[in-house]
Amino acid sequence: MDVHASPAALPELHEFLRAFQVRFRRPEGAEALERYTTGLLTELPHKNCDTIAQAVPGTSEQRLQEFLTNMQWDEADLNRQRVQKMMAEATTDDGVLVVDDTGFPKQGKASVGVARQYSGTLGKVGNCQIAVTCCYTDRWATWPVAAQLYLPKPWAQDPTRRQQARVPAEVSFQTKPEIALQLLDQARAWGVPRCCVIADADYGDNPNFLAGLEARQEWYVVAVRTDFQVTVGWAATTPVWRTDELLQSVPRWQWRTVRWRQGSKGWLRKKFVAVRGWRGTRDGQRHAGWLVGERATQGQPEERKFYWSNLPATTALEELARYAHRRYAVEQFHEEAKGEVGWDQYQGRLWPGFHRHAVTVMLAYSFLVWLEVRQRRSQPRQGRPRDPVSPSA
User: Fold this and answer.
1) Which tens digits make up the pLDDT trace of 250-261?
2) Closest listed residue to residue 10, CA positions, set 28, 32, 30, 37
3) How far apart are CA 333 and CA 331, in angstroms?
4) CB neighbours (10 Å) of residue 57?
5) How far is it, in rounded angstroms, from Cα 358 to Cα 338?
6) With the C-alpha atoms ordered 20, 149, 346, 388, is the resulting torsion angle positive or negative?
7) CA-based diameter of the chain, in Å?
8) What is the mean pLDDT of the chain?
9) Looking at residue 392, what is its pLDDT?
10) Nearest-angstrom CA–CA distance, 229 and 86
11) What is the mean pLDDT of residues 274-286?
């Protein structure tokens, strides 16, 4: 594909980047940030320093590599400023935070954090990197908050590999749920608004993750697996149920059809039921919540899903169902950040380069969301509200 960007900064991108105060020790730093971001926004099929330098005038592969790896600038502070701007200009009052992880297939063993591990992106065990992400989504827009590379234990405990990949000394081995809680703490410190936290079963089935959310007094709706255990009574002698067995015992007439948003073929809807109960912990404590079941309506292929939530006892079933399905936004972000702005195409091997590339990808993605939100607000349309903003839209 013959793609060539303008030698001058795009006016809209220039306006967007002008809001950020990034301190570069070298004057070409700000220009490298703009040129690299411009490259990520092009239609290049592969977006790395080499291809971007060929398509974007006014830069070079060496300068872009230097921008990602050796140039002194604070990518974490740029990310904080971006989140502050998105909170001010692309949020409403019904936002949630979604935590998840995504995989990046990689060859070889030298790239930081690469290992044979399970990736939902691959759908199997493969050679890849895994990044844990935190994403904000509401009825207007979806945009990323933060991301961090998961460092497998063999990597975390290998001084030689850490030194070669320039892994900071303060980075130790953390499980993915621990990283997710750390990203949540970052979002809380920045004041990102949220009604609750959403996660899939890899996190919902982790008692330490749930305990971390409850210790932070966060509302949540998380997917759980069939063997998640709950009780429906407070007494110590109350039987403990598996999720699937308990909901199997609920009469079919108690299940209600709930629709949560319009898709390309009409309203998305399933049958739901919610049972008030308690989940137990190893220390003998019990935590009240909702066990939510989901199954197909008539004419749909059968697929059962289960959720656990600590939302108040007054929460309506429709609200629980809507929150449970807000997780699709982070999957959409992962797919579009890779397909639209080249998140999975970083070719370097270093910890700083991986995260600087990720911060710039989130900046480019947020720019597209910011543009669409601004356009929608300036040109309101009659009829039902449109779906949340997506760069591919």
Assistant:
1) 998 999 999 888
2) 37
3) 5
4) 13
5) 11
6) negative
7) 73
8) 90
9) 53
10) 39
11) 86
What is the CA 228 to chain-centroid distance, rounded? 24
Give the span between the Cα atoms of 20 and 33, in whole angstroms: 11
CA separation for the pair 52, 346 (Å, rounded): 12
The 3-state DSSP composition of the chain as helix, strand, coil percent (nearest 5) reads 40, 25, 35
Retrieve residue 242's tokens: 């598996």
Token match 């692309």: residue?
Answer: 90
Q: What is the pLDDT of residue 27?
A: 79
Nearest alpha-carbon partner for 20 in 87, 81, 72 = 81
Residue 272 bridge partners (DSSP): 256, 294
Beta strands at 197-199 and 220-224: parallel, antiparallel or unpaired: parallel
**Helical segments of the chain, H only:** 11-17, 28-41, 49-55, 61-69, 75-89, 153-156, 159-165, 176-190, 201-204, 207-215, 243-248, 317-324, 328-341, 351-378
- Answer yes or no: is pLDDT of 380 > 70: no
pLDDT, position 92: 86
The pLDDT of 135-157, averaged and rounded, is 94
Q: What are phi and psi of 344, to 5 degrees?
A: -90, 15
Distance CA 218, CA 216 (A): 5
Structure tokens at 18: 């002008």
Whether the predicted pLDDT of 376 surpasses 50: yes
Q: In whole angstroms, give the CA distance from residue 124 to residue 66.
A: 35
- Strand, helix or coil at 98? strand
161-165 contact pairs (CB < 8 A, 24+):
164/110, 164/349, 165/110, 165/111, 165/112, 165/113, 165/349, 165/350, 165/351
Going by C-alpha positions, the residue among 200, 202, 241 that lies closest to residue 220 is 200
**Type of residue found at 377:** R
**Start-to-end Cα distance in the chain:** 22
Question: DSSP states of 217-235 as a string?
Answer: T--EEEEE-TT-EEBSSSS
